[in-house]
Amino acid sequence: QLQLVESGGGLVQPGGSLRLSCTVSGFTEAYYAIGWFRQAPGKEREEVSCISGNGDNTNYADSVQGRFTVSRVNSKNTASLQMNDLKPEDTAVYYCAAAFTTSQGMPCVLLKLTEYDYWGQGTQVTVSS
Q1: Are 109 and 57 in contact (CB under 8 A)?
Q2: Residues with Cβ < 8 Å from 44, sequence gap 6 or more?
Q3: Which of 36, 39, 42, 89 stands the most exposed, by the fewest C-beta atoms within 10 Å?
């Protein structure tokens, strides 16, 4: 099993930046992809970005492409989501999640939301002037 804890959310003005972190503990020796998701009030949870176990493959939602960057440091069991040029529509609770994979390099774009078995508690991101 894996346990995930997010940090780094907060209030930021439009155009500003935030960096979210996700610390993973538990059976970290296994291969696992990390996904970042968000859920705004009254909306379904959506995938924002993901990164494969070895960090070589990443994917982004069209709405954040070019503004968000996902990364991970396996030696520290951490993952990050750098968010730049934030917009009011980015306001949501952000979650990191993990899914075990069969190889380190398995493209995370192949994973469905339901395959992410381990979730953090979420962190609020509010973009407002």
Answers
A1: yes
A2: none
A3: 42
Return the pLDDT at 28: 73
d(CA 40, CA 113): 16
Q: What is the mean pLDDT of the chain?
A: 94
- For residue 102, name the pLDDT band (cuts at 50, 70, 90): confident
Between the CA of residue 79 and those of 34, 42, 55, 75, what are the distances in Å?
A: 7, 27, 10, 11
DSSP states of the chain:
-EEEEEE--EEE-TT--EEEEEEEEESTTS-EEEEEEEE-TTS--EEEEEE-TTS--EEE-TTTTTTEEEEEEGGGTEEEEEE-S--GGG-EEEEEEEEE-SSTT--GGG--GGG--EE---EEEEE--
Q: Which residue has the tokens 């306001």?
A: 91
